[in-house]
Amino acid sequence: MLQTLSMEKAMPLGDMLFIIFAFLVLMVVLKHFAWGPLTKVLDERADKINSDLDGAEKKNKDAQSLFDQREKELAAGKEQASQLISAAKKTAKEQSDSLIQAANDQVAGMRKTAEQDADSMKVEAMNTAKKDVAGLSVNIASKLIQKELSEDDQRALIDAYLAELGQQ
């Protein structure tokens, strides 16, 4: 078996040159027809992947920018809503205070009018009482003139007239 291996190893130089030449021709043909298009396809694929990655990165940055912008707008919207609520509360408080003040002013006016009415009624009652007392005095005087009365009779007469005045 050793002899067979050593014989097979020894190849003639012509066969070896033919194999080397055939290998080189095969390599040139493979490079031209297979390796070139294959590397071209692989390069195009790599470029497409890089382009897609760049596009995805750009879209990611755009999305992040849009997200940040939306966050700012949301924060601004919340701030604006808070300001609107504060303004509405302030306006409601002012209107409430205004209504309370108007009601207090109206009550004070009504109280003043009532006091004036009471004062005028008091004056009117006093005037009426004066007239009635004057009328009673005239009646008493006329009755006294018609008849002479004792002191007790005069007191009784005055008390009767005063009671009559109290009923009126």
TrEMBL record:
Coiled coil spans: 46-73
UniProt membrane topology term: Single-pass membrane protein
Protein keywords: ATP synthesis, Cell membrane, CF(0), Coiled coil, Hydrogen ion transport, Ion transport, Membrane, Transmembrane, Transmembrane helix, Transport
Any Pfam family hit: ATP-synt_B
Membrane-spanning parts: 12-30
Alphabetical list of InterPro entries matching this protein: ATP_synth_b/b'su_bac/chlpt, ATP_synth_F0_bsu_bac, ATP_synthase_B_chain
Record's subcellular location: Cell membrane; Endomembrane system
Signal peptide feature range: none
CDD domains: ATP-synt_Fo_b (cd06503)
Purpose of the protein: Component of the F(0) channel, it forms part of the peripheral stalk, linking F(1) to F(0). F(1)F(0) ATP synthase produces ATP from ADP in the presence of a proton or sodium gradient. F-type ATPases consist of two structural domains, F(1) containing the extramembraneous catalytic core and F(0) containing the membrane proton channel, linked together by a central stalk and a peripheral stalk. During catalysis, ATP synthesis in the catalytic domain of F(1) is coupled via a rotary mechanism of the central stalk subunits to proton translocation.
Subunit structure and binding partners: F-type ATPases have 2 components, F(1) - the catalytic core - and F(0) - the membrane proton channel. F(1) has five subunits: alpha(3), beta(3), gamma(1), delta(1), epsilon(1). F(0) has three main subunits: a(1), b(2) and c(10-14). The alpha and beta chains form an alternating ring which encloses part of the gamma chain. F(1) is attached to F(0) by a central stalk formed by the gamma and epsilon chains, while a peripheral stalk is formed by the delta and b chains.
Family: Belongs to the ATPase B chain family.
Protein name, per record: ATP synthase subunit b
Natural source organism: Fructobacillus broussonetiae
